[in-house]
Predict the structure.
Amino acid sequence: MSPGTHLLPPIFQRLEQAQTVLLAGAGGGFDLFCGLPLYFALQAQGKQVILANLSFSSLDLSSARQLGEALYEVRAQTQADLRYFPELHLARWLAHTGDVPVYAFARTGVQPILHAYKQLVEQHGVDTVILIDGGTDSLMRGDEAGLGTPEEDAVSLAAVQMLEGISQKLLVCLGFGVDTFHGVAHAQYLEAVAALTRTGAYLGTWSLTPEMPEVQRYREVLSFVHAQMPDFPSIVSSSILDAVDGQFGNYHSTHGTRASTLFINPLMGLYWAFEATGVAERNLYLDRLRETTSFGEVARVIATFREEWPRLKSWESIPL
């Protein structure tokens, strides 16, 4: 082993051990797209990678094959008269490499999502699950000044925590700073990373750069999907790729952000990796979600926790 190998973040050793990976968007929408550079890299290493996403689309209004209460199989030939369906357009872009399914989880509670994960693990012999968060609010434990959009991330995290028979459960975040729009204090995100470092659950950080083939393909996919859904560009992925390109400050590449002030910066292009179980164990309300069966129930549980918690943290700015 060369000396330089020791400088690689621990996540790379974990990924070397993986054989069949379930790469799943944790927070819904375009989250899965933030994992595409990993998808292309793992595929190039000869690993089998299964794609899944917690979906915001009306899956029951499409011809996607329903495999379970909350699990659908989307393929290039799936038909749907929906203005918003990123999973379908991703499957159609991937069709040039073969008939690649993109599995979609319905937006619901933990129990149906857990069952959907179990189905995919059993069907494909998955040994490693990687949850992908577009943004970093999945690390909010519940008592911070703002949680961002916690419901979908929390459902995914709780389901994967309860999943049995998996060698590795990982969480990877991309897009530091994008959750400011949703009220996340990033000083409190960094506090969470520090806490996870102390417990051994932090697995390192690394950068995306423009010359990486995986990044170039990520850009190609996003451009294709944006062309199919021009009214629904991904603000998160657009911001990430703008940052990777070297844009800075209040830079807008999509019409969806024109009314807001952005801070595009190099930290947005960093992948942050964690043991998913460690993140779940730090969460203060996740146990309350275990038996939920609907999305409305999840939202009520989190809101009730926030009302009952004796002391929520105040907003903190990064003192730099």
